[in-house]
Amino acid sequence: MTKPAHARAPSSARVGIGGPVGAGKTALIERLLPLLAARGFSLAVVTNDLVTKEDAERLQRGGLIAPERVVGVEAGACPHTVIREDPTLNIEAADLLEAKFAPLDLIVIESGGDNLASTFSLDLVDYWLFVIDVAGGDDIPRKKGPGIVQADLLIINKVDLAPHVGVDVAAMQRDAEAVRGGKPVILTDCRAGIGLDQVVARLAHDVLMAE
Amino acid sequence: MLQHGDSFFPSGAVSFSWGIEALGADGKISKADDVARFVRQQLKGRWATSDRPVLCAAHAAGGDLDSVLTADRLMEANSLAAEQREGSKRMGAALLNIHARLETRGAKDYQARLRAGAAPGHVAAVQGFLWHALGLDADSACHVAAHGLAVNLLGAALRLGIIGHVDSQVILGNLHATIADILSVPPAPLHELHAYAPAADIAMMRHETQDSRLFYN
Lengths: 211, 217
Ligand SMILES: Nc1nc2c(ncn2[C@@H]2O[C@H](COP(=O)(O)OP(=O)(O)OP(=O)(O)O)[C@@H](O)[C@H]2O)c(=O)[nH]1
Ligand SMILES: [Mg+2]
Hints:
The structure holds two protein chains of two kinds.
Chain A: E1 13-18, H1 25-38, E2 43-47, H2 54-61, E3 70-72, H3 88-101, E4 106-110, E5 127-133, H4 146-150, E6 153-157, H5 162-165, H6 169-179, E7 185-187, H7 196-206
Parallel strand pairs in A: 1-4, 1-5, 2-3, 2-4, 5-6, 6-7
Helix pairs in contact in A: 1-7
Chain B: H1 2-5, H2 20-25, H3 32-60, H4 65-77, H5 82-102, H6 107-115, H7 123-133, H8 138-159, H9 165-183, H10 198-207
Helix pairs in contact in B: 3-4, 3-7, 3-8, 3-9, 4-7, 5-6, 5-7, 8-9
Residues 25-26, 55, 110 of chain A line the site of magnesium ion.
């Protein structure tokens, strides 16, 4: 992830969270915010809501983070474009947060709900997660979309639903690991709060260089 | 010129509809003719009489950022609807951001003024001085900006499902005459800056409070 020196010189790490609509991206952020804050990290969030400002407002009202540390960027019906080909508004939003709340440790950028082909520009983020859920079907990892294959960390969420949708989570995880060439896969249940310590440990290690 | 006029260039434009989303939701823009009329009106009633003079003045500033600022401030004073004004500034800031990274001359300095709250950063002013720095002549810069606005508006209409990909090319083809027409006379002097696009202004004012929104404006 080396970049030309002029490309970026912020102090904070920037982490993208992508994944299909409803997979649990916002739920994951809501779980991560208190855990990361408890470790003393200073945070901000950019959301790319697709049709409303609902995610930005949900986070602003949720009491997990100061509302002014959350900004929404409209995606103009192009959720992929604004994280990949043209992330300028997201970069500008992150830069402004950075200027306003310096020093920030981490800016989380939630994508507006993607399909399996979406990826984040490495000019926008240093590291990105892709969130899928078991209810989307256990064949998703085998479809090998760029999101599944290239993301630095793959989250398989809603494992609590597996029995209800007839999905073998262990097999899904194996399939995912097989197509990811050793990059991590973590199972989570954002409702009950399972697997999140592992996610935080990963972020702390890979992104925040905290341990 | 091709690089900067191409929608592949990351300018942030995809997030803006400049009133089309609200007018579409109200049923006031529902077919290709409506879109063509709207885009023509935006070009003639707003871009030609307010963005273009500002762009030309910022271009003519020849890299003198204080002169750019004068034009930029006039734009601020003449933008009525909040979503129009803020949208224009957000696009300007986005364009400055990418050019600061590309190290285009003046970009970092003007960006610092924006960040310090010392300049509004309207897109027309930013385009004018950046494209001057990149060696585009004033006429080419105007063509790039007008074409970019037309493509931006048609892209929004297309993504909102109001027109198809064929219609959008037909309309764009027809707009070339409109753009040529606008550019056949010299730009109005800065003190005559004005815009007349009431339907779009009102639509953007209403858009501010709408629940369902794909676009910033
Ligand atoms: N059972 C269960 N439900 C979950 C879990 N995580 C999220 N949900 C629910 O799934 C729904 C969608 O969650 P969100 O966090 O809004 O999903 P998202 O990916 O942010 O959705 P978009 O932003 O619209 O793309 C909500 O109703 C959540 O309560 C989980 O682990 N288990
Ligand atoms: Mg969400």
